[in-house]
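Ticket #4471: structure output looks truncated?

Reporter: J.K.
Steps to reproduce: submitted the chain below (201 residues) through the standard prediction queue, then opened the result file.
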Amino acid sequence: MAQPCGSRPVTISDVQQLVKRKDEIEAQIKACYELLESQKGVGMNEPLVDAEGFPRNDIDLYQVRTARHNIICLQNDHKALMKQVEEALHQLHAREKEKHAKDEAEALAEAMSQNQSLPQAFAKVNTVTPGSPASISGLQVDDEIVEFGSVNVNNFQNLQNIATVVQHSEGRPLSVTVIRGGKKVHLGLTPKRWAGKGLLG
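Returned output as attached by the reporter:
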């Protein structure tokens, strides 16, 4: 069955048009049946001849034949139309499903790319003294610092910020997030006094 509207995608209004046409055909079929009913209740299969085989003279044979013929034609049209309605609805649903799947895929891709877009670093580790608290915590040279306790790219002004956090956190573990090799790494760093200078090394 060809699409009801050429090769362009089916729209809701196409379906509404088809349904309207279906209603019209149903009304015509009903009218034909009413006509048969008015002819002494002759249906689709009652004989049109009397017991002797002569055409019945109590009914309008021409009208009955025409009505019967119209009903058969209209029922065929109706069947074809129902198929079109069904196909149009299938196409609409398939499109909706496709659109929904596409939206979901896009949302997923967006979420993935957001996960991959790494936060901005505000400082880079130049040196780590062996045996220092920084070294023990796993901090490495070239680690880019994204978060250092409460300090991040949004509130970082200068290295004094970090020094202040370190002084206030002596002996208490700090959460440190760095970017290393394109990935985010979380470390726990406890500033404390050690053999070398400062609380970190």
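Triage note (M.O.): checked the attachment and the full token line is present. Residues 138 and 187 are 7 Å apart (CA to CA).
Status: closed, working as intended.
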